[in-house]
Amino acid sequence: MKLCVFDFDSTLMDGETIDFLAQELGIGEKVAAITDMAMRGELDFFESLTTRVKLLEGLEVKRVDEICANLPMMPGAQESVAELKKRGYRVVVFSGGFKNATTVAAQKLGLDADFSNVLHHREGRLTGLVGGEMMFDFSKGEMLKRIQSILGISPEQTVAVGDGANDRSMFARAGTKIAFCAKEILKKEATAVVETKDLREILKHIP
To answer: Among this protein's residues, is 9 annotated catalytic?
Structure first.
């Protein structure tokens, strides 16, 4: 058995979920600027996440779900997941984003599991609070360690694919580390760098 772990935003999905949600409130540029700083490693991930989610307070959950159901998948995402499955990989997604998006994507792409955060809401609207499995810079690495232990999979049998600073912790637990259209901070820790915006390109680097 082998394992491949994808980041979601700007890796499996073409864009940042929270930026799409912020556009609905007319604060897209403000939130995108914070997102970009966090992905470059210039802001603590937990602080950046909670700050951005607070700005979404009042957004209708119904609208959140509609937006998340229609997020654009990265070119080659479907084909890459299918090919990895043929090669005997379990394929999962880790996201500092939200269940509203990752659960839908996991169903579309045929992923084995998704791990992400939950947007708190009350009376049909977001409260600006968030909680979950992927809140911190170290979260992806910790979750990967647990999954490897449960499945009996070694780092050498593990592939990690991501684009931002909060993917470094899962890179530390993977033998094959692919930086996909990534920030410089992540490229430095990669075993392979893909600059073409097509996920099928990663298959060249995966055994």
So the answer is: yes
Q: What pTM value is reported for the model? A: 0.95
Reported as a single tens digit per residue, the pLDDT across 108-159 is 999 999 999 999 999 999 999 999 999 999 999 999 999 999 999 999 999 9
Instruction: Give me Rg for the CA atoms of the chain.
Output: 16
Domain with 164 in it: 2-205
Q: How many independent structural domains does the chain possess?
A: 1
Q: Which of 7, 19, 114, 167 is catalytic?
A: 7
| Closest CA relative to residue 137, chosen from 108, 96, 172, 178 | 96
**Those residues with Cβ within 8 angstroms of residue 137's Cβ, 6 or more apart along the chain or in another chain:** 44, 45, 46, 165, 166, 168, 169
* Max CA distance (Å), the chain: 48
What CATH number should be reported for the domain holding residue 89? 3.40.50.1000
